[in-house]
Design goal:
elongated; 9-stranded mixed beta sheet; DNA replication; Rossmann fold; DNAb Helicase, Chain A; alpha/beta; 20 helices; ATP-binding; about 45% helix
Length: about 525
């Protein structure tokens, strides 16, 4: 009887922990790996096309990993890449035998005659690697999930971080030709013309939109202020204008207030009923009717609120991508940046480094989804100790200069009334009551300005500040118009528009003495 040979077990490499479960082979394309490596050794053009797409670990065969490492080393040192130089580099690294020897290198070069379609082949190799990585991560997640000593939220953070690393490390955009970019730009210009000059998402504030042309896709916008200035009120007013008036989907991530509190503030703003009345429910019959009628537009608005506390940048990215694919969101608002965490493997380091990571990833998210991201931020207490008008400065941004660096627009909210300042520091010394300033201090693609807005405190709402709030201004405009040869009657508002229908309808530019003060 034939004796059975004892079974010999071979240790598997740590990097390949993929089991052949149910007889399945890991995703691979070894034939394409051979073709790509052979093409790189016979044609310099092949090296140039795929050297930034691939890296050693994406190859399934260990021998191919060593060969690619040798090619990459030669490329980095600006040395020629061919059969002889690759062989010499492998000898130098003491990996020629592990790579299959010189005969195997010759075989690779004979499998292909040119580098045609090498980029297409390289991307298939990359896809197979991503599939193997997902299988590997899934196995690790399953194994970790059986460990009762591991915190479930740490599991979620680790899983999110691993998936994020695969995306960041391997999904790379290729360059585009000037021709294709020009076509895209012309199409965008046509769309802008159809939207009356706004190329981005309208904020609902006329002067802000004029300055920015709307919030632009892929921009990171920072809105910073001290506590109590109305950061949340301003962004809620914007979200309401965008979602209700323009029916544009908006995602609002609130780390500070609950979703019910936010929607209650929106209801107060929409109905004109104070937050105190809504909290107590002490409404008269006509106010109940007012509530039911005026919230109908808000109910139908494509506004999505997420109030997850201590949201990590990885969670935000996953949620935003989901909302983008399912609901087509075109604007993301984060309230506020300092309450976020880096999450995953980014927990080390000080708070400044963590904030830098968060702001950098918010910018990356804006570019990835091609939507504007508005992030609220706190200011340092230096504003409170400073004398004068107490207008915020870029240096007041809290915890990190990286916020200023990463942002396309940095803006501040300033309400002098908060500091018991009764008059603006302008020539007219106009009163500050019920007014705020939206200060654009950095604008990567446009100008800077200080824009005044109306603030309705008991409703938590910002609005456009009427141009003709003061009779002296109208008086000045009338005189200018009367002295102008090209004077037209529509260059200033009628008395009805400026003061109400009860005023004299026969008011003319010459009747200066009839203007009430």
């Amino acid at each position: 009887m034939e004796k059975l040979k004892p079974h010999t077990s071979y240790p598997s490499r740590p990097s390949q922990i993929i089991s052949l479960e149910k007889g399945k082979l890991p995703p691979q394309a070894t034939d394409l790996e051979e073709v790509v490596l052979g093409a790189m050794m016979i044609d310099k053009k092949g090296v140039d096309e795929v050297i930034d797409i691939l890296n050693a670990e994406v190859f399934y065969k260990e021998a191919h990993q060593h060969i690619f490492e040798a090619i990459h080393t030669l490329f980095e040192n600006s040395e020629p890449v061919d059969l002889l130089t690759v062989s010499a580099q492998l000898k130098k690294d003491a990996k020629l035998d592990a790579a299959g020897g010189e005969f195997y290198l010759v075989q690779l070069t004979q499998k292909v005659s040119s580098s045609a379609h090498i980029e297409f082949h390289a991307r298939i190799i990359l896809q197979k690697y991503i599939q193997r990585s997902l299988i590997k991560i899934s196995n690790e997640i399953i194994e970790d999930s059986y460990d009762e000593t591991t915190d479930v939220f740490d599991l979620l953070d680790n899983a999110e971080a691993k998936l994020y690393e695969i995306t960041q490390g391997n999904i790379k955009r290729s360059s585009e030709t000037a021709q294709s970019l020009v076509i895209q730009a012309k199409k965008r210009i046509e769309e802008i013309a159809n939207r009356e000059g706004l190329s981005g998402i309208p904020s609902g504030f006329t002067k802000v939109d004029k300055l920015t042309s709307g919030w632009q896709p892929s921009d990171l916008i920072i809105i910073a202020a001290r506590p109590g200035m109305g950061k949340t009120a301003l962004t809620l007013s914007m979200a309401r204008n965008i979602a209700v008036e323009h029916n544009i989907p908006v995602a609002f991530f609130s780390l500070e207030m609950s979703s019910v509190q936010l929607i209650t503030r929106l209801i107060s703003s929409e109905t004109g009923l104070s937050s105190e009345k809504l909290r107590t429910g002490n409404l008269a019959k006509h106010e109940w009717e007012q509530l039911n009628v005026k919230v109908k537009g808000l109910e139908k608005a494509p506004l999505f609120i997420d109030d997850t506390p201590s949201l990590s940048i990885f969670d935000l990215r996953a949620k935003a991508r989901r909302l983008s694919s399912q609901h087509g969101i075109q604007l993301i608002i984060v309230d506020y940046l300092q309450l976020m965490t880096a999450g995953g493997s980014q927990k080390g380091g000080n708070r400044e480094q963590e904030i830098s990571t968060i702001s950098r990833n918010l910018k990356a998210l804006a570019k990835e989804l091609n939507v504007p991201v508005i992030a609220l931020s706190q200011l340092s207490r230096a504003v409170e100790t400073r004398g004068g008008s107490k207008r915020p400065l870029l240096s007041d941004l809290r915890e990190s200069g990286a916020i200023e660096q990463d942002a396309d627009i940095v803006s501040f909210i300033y309400r002098p009334e908060y500091y018991k300042i009764d008059e603006w520091d302008d020539e007219d010394r106009t009163p500050t009551a019920g007014q705020a300033e939206f200060i654009v201090s950095k604008h990567r693609n446009g100008g800077l300005d200080e824009i005044r807005l109306k603030f309705i405190g008991h409703l938590g709402r910002f609005e456009n500040l009427e141009t003709f709030d003061f009779p002296t201004e109208i008086h000045s405009r009338m005189n200018d118009a009367a002295n102008d040869d090209t004077f037209k009657t529509d260059s200033f508002p009628s008395a009805d528009e400026a003061f109400g229908s009860s005023m004299n309808n026969d008011l003319s530019p010459d009747d200066d003495n009839d203007v009430p003060f």
